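User: Structure please.
Assistant: Input sequence and predicted structure:
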Amino acid sequence: MGVFDLDKIKRAHQRFLAEHSRQVGVALKPEMLTPWVWRYVSQHGGFTSRTGNLVKKSKVTLIRRGKNRLVRVSNNAKYANAQDGGSGLYGPKRRKYLIRPKNAKALRFVKNGRFIFARSVMHPGVHPTRFLYNANDALFRATKQWLRMAMRRAADKF
C-alpha cells in the first residue's frame, strides 16, 4: 500500500491555483482582448466596412462587481447602435424614416445601374448585424478555450 505526502499535494494544488489566477488575469486584460475584437469585427461583423470606424471604435472593458469580473464589448460610434440593432423597419421603431440632404440640394444614389437624384427619400432602414453580441460571444468562447489550454499546460507541470 502506497503512502501519500498530503503536504506535497497541498503545495502543488496551491501552485496550480496561483497559476490559474495568473492565467485568468492575463486572459482578461482589455489591452489583450481589444485587438482580438477588432479582428473579429472586421472579418465577421456582417457589414461592409468603408472607413474602418466601427472596427476602430470597438473596445473591451472589464467591469468589476465585487469578486466577479465581467467583460463587455462596446462601441461608441454614432451609428453603432443602428448597425448592431437595426434601424427603420428592422429597428425598434419598425417604420421607415425620411432622409434629406445636409450639404447639397439633392440626394444621389444608384438604382438599377443608374444615378437617381431626389430631394428626400423614405429609407427602409438597415438590417441588424448583431456584431457586438457576436463579438462578445466569440470572445467568450475564445477566452474559455485559451484558459482551458493554459490550465492543461499548468496541470502537466504538477
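The chain has a mean pLDDT of 89.
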